[in-house]
Amino acid sequence: MASVPSLLVSLDEHEGSGQEGVQEVHEIANGTESNVKKRKQREIEISALEERALQKGIPQTPDEFDKLVRSSPNSSFVWIKYMEFWFDLADVEKARSVAERALRTINIREEDEKLNVWVAYFNLENEYGSPREDAVKKIFQRAVQYCDPKKVHLALLGMYERTQQHQLADELLDRMTRRFRTSRKIWFHRIQFSLKQGEGVEYMNFVVNCALLGLPQRKHIRFLTQTAILEFKCGVPEEGRTRFELILWDHPTRTDLWSLYLDQEIRLGDTEIIRALFERVISLSFPPKKMKFLFKKYLRYEKSQGDEERIDHVKQKALEFVNMPYEA
């Protein structure tokens, strides 16, 4: 029997391939890193508990699986394991039948559980559908009628990216940015995909400008900041720097944005650039509370470098600021 890939998916996979990197950028820009990590840890723990419960008595027959799904009718984990049971036996029709049964059975209020089954169904048709593209499309068209359309689109995008169907992913993203033109998340996925495909500066700026035309004004700063962070992470830091500089030209008093800019340079590790940026920031006129934050960040960086002379330099700069008269 040929080896087959798992149909199981995590909730993060509803967000598209490479979601760990995308989520990290969202966390950094939103300041929610710890909360998201706790949620992820909880999901891992729940998944592990389900896996251990299943391992105690792994069903070996359809009757045993039927008994299990009757006892846990809303568990996508159990239903997908049942699909995999038939999948492993190369009985695709039975796997499809289980998927349909799961979608009929899972409570309508359990949207994430239903979505997990839809994504497993995508994966099944992506492996065995004939023709594959049409088979997946039919399941997708059904799924968007029953689940959050944005989540379903992102789930399909994730599958296309994971299976390196780049042309289909590109076409889907074009449709997504038209349908969800006010969604920062969708435009962010467009940016991420384009960067991964090595698109040039001119094209990237075109996408960013299209996004800004579609997004409400209140979403602009966060979108541009997330794009700049992603450019740093995707190997084009010079574009990320340019974008941060443009953002800060319009919002020079946003210490949170300066801090994010500094974080990206610190990740790259060019001490000359990092120190020049720190010096530039502490020369600006911010309220004492914000300056204290920036000096602490600068001092923490120099301590990580272990340069006593530089540490003394930062302390001296901080002392000079403290002794300087402040005008509100």
Protein architecture, described:
It is found in: Nucleus, Nucleolus. Residues 13-36 are annotated as: Disordered. Pfam families: HAT_Syf1_CNRKL1_C. Residues 13-27 have a biased composition (Basic and acidic residues). This protein has a domain at 1-146. 30% of the residues are buried. The N and C termini lie far apart (75 Å). The model has no long low-confidence stretch (mean pLDDT 88). The chain is mainly α. Helices cover 76% and strands 0% of the residues. The chain has helices at residues 19-30, 33-56, 62-71, 76-88, 92-105, 111-128, 132-146, 149-162, 166-179, 184-196, 201-214, 220-233, 237-250, 255-268, 271-282, 288-305, 308-322. α16 (288-305) packs antiparallel against α17.
Radius of gyration: 25 Å
Mean pLDDT: 88
Helix/strand order, N-terminal first: HHHHHHHHHHHHHHHHH
**Estimated share of beta-strand residues:** under 5%
Give the tally of β-strands. Answer: 0
Distance between the amino and carboxyl termini = 75 Å
Briefly note the structural class of the backbone.
mainly alpha
Largest sheet: none
Query: Could you say which overall geometry the principal axes of the C-alpha atoms support?
Result: elongated
Helix content: over 70%
Number of helices: 17
Low-pLDDT regions: none
Keywords: Nucleus, Repeat, rRNA processing
Organism: Triticum aestivum
Pfam family, one: HAT_Syf1_CNRKL1_C
Protein name: Pre-mRNA-splicing factor Syf1/CRNKL1-like C-terminal HAT-repeats domain-containing protein
